[in-house]
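Possible race condition, two jobs.
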Amino acid sequence: MLPFTMEESWWSRHGEAAGSVHEQVFPDVPAEWLDPALAEKWEKIRKVRRVVTGALEVERREKRIGSSLEAAPVVHVTDPELFSAVSSDDFDDICIVSQITVTDMAAPDGAFTLDEVAGVAVVPAKADGRKCARSWKVLPEVGSDPDYPDLTLRDAQAMREFDAARAA
């Protein structure tokens, strides 16, 4: 499916005379696009995410959750550099969970850890609330917008803007 979709997208942008997207060579990335500080930050984010993902895999295997969006883990990050990296972004979206709590407090005994990522531990938990029909996130706010009772507030706002643009 994806190869056909990409071909259609390529032709839509460049025309069928441009040939196949699958015959294209990736362009060279300009050196000035390189951002070592950003790359280092994302390496830290990926390290912490690896621990979260590992904890969620255990929960899935034990049949306590089906999808990662059913989870609301508590992530204990005692390494200050890792904590700084993950506390400034939408870490719930990065981890593909509905809710997440990131704390710099020590983890309780029995928290999930990985030997290769020191200073990070995860206590899995199930997300509270109802499942959003659009994002599939499980949040207590689902149903609080009377115009979009099956959506989170964020998704309700997105649909409100979409509906307004479509009506204009």
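Job #2 (started ~2 s after job #1):
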Amino acid sequence: MGQAHDILDRARKAREEKRFEDALRDHLWFHENALNVEPAMAGVRLSFALRDWIYLGEQFPLARRALQGLRDRDTARMLNGGATVQLFHDISAINSALGDERATQELFTQLDIQMPDLARQCADFALPALVATEDFALARRYIPQPLERVGTLAQRLNAYVTELAKSGSTASAPALLAYVLNYAKEVRLVLEVLRRQGDDEEAAAVSAAALDQLESPALRDAVQREFDNPGATIAAMVNHARGNAAPAQEQ
């Protein structure tokens, strides 16, 4: 493993050992520097690392304030000449971790007015916050072609499943379940916006296309289960993890 991975692990260990200042120092370093040394940590940086930071903040309030400070600093950059899609992604991920979707909605509203071209590029990252804050009118403007959007999402999922089948590996099952979960979440966001804006006919067409455009019957079944019972995919991921852990526990 690389330096960034090791430092994130060190932050977790420091938190568990109640060395909170050390943990915060490592989280700050990881957030600011991880991509410079390990670009592959991009996903971890805005998911698991932020989750761990929130855990630290529950025991050490200074850590939460530090994360809010980073968010405020980056928000100021967005509005004062330093705006980029990546920076907006960072801010929206931090706000999501903090449970402050309103801050993302307010920032995106300003981008919509002041920097509409950039707002179009950031819209996918803003959509969950717009739905959470019930700003459906603004969200609808950034989903001009719902059927096309869902078709693109379906193509990506089909391509991933095709590559997985070619590899013949079963080790990627958790990743496949994560893809299914993310696909279902994205489709549900689009459907929520359409329905709340009164576009019921288009919502029905999108709902049908979300399944019809999936090439694998098994994949359609998995997505249908998630639609019918939100959380079913997470339960399957947990069961898979437990199944893999069982042999080690029996030895």
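The chain has a mean pLDDT of 91.
Logs attached separately.
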